Amino acid sequence: MPTSLLPLDANGYGATSSPSSSSGNSSSSGSSSANRPSQCCDEAEPVSAVAAAPGASTAAREAVGDGGSPGRGILARLSPDPVPDEVRTGITSDPVPSLYTEAQIIFDGINYFNERVSGDLISISTHFNPYQVSLRRIDTIPRIYVSLLVTTATLHRSMQLDDHFARSSALVQREEDIFRFRIRALQDVNYRLSKKDTQTSDSTLMCVICLLLSTVSSSVLAAITFPLGADYVMQMQQSAYTDWRAHLEGARRIIQLRGGIKEIITKNPYFKPLMTLFVCIDVMAATTTPSTHEYMAVATSMALHYWEAEPGIFQSNLAVSSPCPEELFQTLILVNYLRSISRKDRLKSRRQSGTRMVLKKLRSFNPAEWATRMKGFKGWKKTGDGVEFDTPLRGARSPSESQSPEPASQRGQTGFPASDHHHHHHQHSNLPSPPYGTPPSLTAKSSDIPESDLWLNIAVIYRAAITLYTMRTLVLDLREDKAFLYEEEPDLDIITLRLDARQQLAAALAPIFSDRASARTLGKLVFFPMFVCGMEAGPNDRDLQDFIANGLERVGHACGTFGPIGAVDELRGKWAADAQAPKGTHVTWDEYFEGRPDFVFGF
Q1: Element at 559 (helix H, strand E)
Q2: How far is CA 122 from CA 119, 126, 480, 521, in A?
Q3: Which domain of life is it from (predicted)?
Q4: So what's the pLDDT on residue 484?
Q5: 55: left (phi over 0), alpha (psi -120 to 50) or beta
Q6: Which pLDDT score, from 0 to 100, does residue 451 have?
Q7: Measured between alpha carbons, how far is 128 from 382 in angstroms, rounded to an integer?
Q8: Residue ranges of the domains in the chain?
Q9: Taking the CB of the first residue and of the last residue of the chain, which one, N or C, has fewer CB atoms within 10 A?
Q10: What are phi and psi of 74, to 5 degrees?
Q11: What is the three-class DSSP state of 237?
Q12: Is the pTM of this model over 0.90?
């Protein structure tokens, strides 16, 4: 068995022994079926090909068919690998609350997931949602997947409770049972990864990505939700920073062994919604990974080839809750790669030319033109195998052909709208970090972007955020002569470029932070830009710090995910580190994330 596919223990860590080490209930893989939990995923529990995307409307499921021969699950339609009719032994006798049966837990959890959680996985709530699960067909879905959805829904619901909410003994018992759901799901994944005939199957990949998604969004919250003692709380807080990495790298290894994303979605186009989630998490995770991390080179090199999966592959990103414009998403992938080679002197020329290319692409990207193209966007197709537009994107120009929406006479040298900052001097040597500044008014009215135009606002926000991320990691943090930036564009004004981007980003985020409704519907779409804005706040910039911290906490509670709240802790750590840095210096992006537990935020 490949070492990269080692089973995970009950907390998501890679196990070093057989898949029978969780919770003290062990057995070998050859245990008799009489000792195995009844909740198994076998051929008697067929799963719809659309459901494995995951979830779909009942009509979409029925359109797929019932799998052929009697007794043969249609999971076989997903993968040529047979589904085992046995699972490893886990918790053999789960206590069932007297007032809340397991069936009720499942029904309540899936119903809540459909109504309150699945909508957060797509960008526009009125679009078709392939992540919903039909309650009518719940018995045809693998139990492992049901367990993951129920635990995710419970964690989401806990975020909606008032801080002074009193938990009854029945509720506490239910929470403990749902925690056991998660343990059982992890045990089932362990078993699949331990078996050669299932470790790379579609169903296993589906479960690993679902674990990844649920861990990225809410694992820290488990420490709050389940009152099982101080030791357990500390364990769960640590696993919040490590579970997701184990799941991410496990999914990456399965994808590599399967021949890549192109091979997977070619054989099974219904997997595109899941692959889109994986791609987004993978790219966003690299932004908060230090360039020296053991997985950074592999991840960023793999991402360079994502576009080869099929034409327009990054348009699918627009349908999920990280709708970075496709041109900017490709640019972000390139920035991550350039960061990964930033300490390799032999690749210095490649990095410098790549940095110039990135800045040129960012300046030429036209938010207004992209927003116009997006007016016909309809989200996921009802078949679940791609996205659709009302009309073809005729006459769409590439980023390099686009021009800034303002007339040349009204534009700053950066390609961004002209601001009140006037820095006309160019530093062709080592650039100091520009002075920190707070936008003049952090209110909803401070943004010039019409709130009614969602896509324009998103385009402006992501362009500003990626510009700042690029400037910080590829220019200001590197101790080298900056003359290479001006070889092709001698009039480039780096100081103004950064200050304009910062002001635009903060102003565009203000309406999102203004109330709970906006935080819920719009906040979920711009996690990465919010974090970048916080990383730009200086140690003495208390107004901007408070603006970002309060905004992230509001978004976290409104969206039902601990991610934004955990991001506040990370940002406060960065602000404290900057405050302790020698005068005139700052803690670089790499310096802060090096040596810290793996952290992901951006989805």
Answers
A1: helix 542-559
A2: 6, 9, 42, 10
A3: Eukaryota
A4: 94
A5: left
A6: 35
A7: 6
A8: 3-29+82-258, 275-593
A9: N
A10: -80, 10
A11: helix
A12: no
CA distance 14 to 329: 31
Give the largest Cα separation in the chain, rounded: 79
Torsions phi, psi of 122, nearest 5?
Answer: -115, 160
Q: Helix crossing, 348-364 with 326-340: angle to 10°?
A: 160
Q: Are the CB atoms for 248 and 282 separated by under 8 Å? A: yes
Stated as kind and residue range, the H or E segment containing 170 is helix 169-194
pLDDT in tens, 512-556: 998 888 898 899 899 999 999 999 998 889 999 999 999 999 998
End-to-end Cα separation, the chain, in angstroms: 31
Contact 19, 84 (CB under 8 A): no
566 residue type, one letter: G
Summarised one tens digit per residue, pLDDT across range 249-288 is 999 999 999 999 999 999 988 889 999 999 999 999 999 9
pLDDT of 190 reads 85
595 CB burial (10 A radius; 0-12, 13-18, 19+): exposed
Rounded to whole angstroms, the Cα distance separating 152 from 213 reads 9
User: 25: buried, middle or exposed (CB in 10 Å: 19+, 13-18, 0-12)?
Assistant: middle
Beta bridge partners of 387: 380
Is the model more confident about 147 or about 5?
A: 147
Residues 370/396, Cβ–Cβ less than 8 Å: no
Mean pLDDT of 417-421: 37
Block residue for tokens 């989401």:
156
Residue 573 burial by CB count (10 A; 0-12/13-18/19+): exposed, middle or buried? middle
Residue with tokens 């972007």: 449
Instruction: Count other C-beta atoms under 10 Å from residue 491's C-beta.
Output: 8
Residue 151: its H or E element: helix 143-158
Distance CA 555, CA 523 (A): 6
What is the rounded CA–CA span in Å between residue 282 and residue 547? 28
**Minimal CA–CA distance to 416: which of 502, 510, 325?**
502
Q: Which amino acid is at 361?
A: K
**From the CB of residue 480, how many other CB atoms can be counted at a distance below 10 Å?**
13
Rounded CA gap, 324 and 317, in Å? 7
CB-based contact 90:37 (threshold 8 Å)? yes
pLDDT of residue 573: 93
Geometric angle at alpha carbon 149, from 267 and 221, rounded to 5°: 125
The residue-averaged pLDDT of 144-163 equals 71
Residues 276 and 253: beta-carbon distance below 8 Å: no
Pick the closest to residue 112 from 56, 158, 157 (CA basis).
157
- For 533, the enclosing helix (H) or strand (E) is helix 527-535
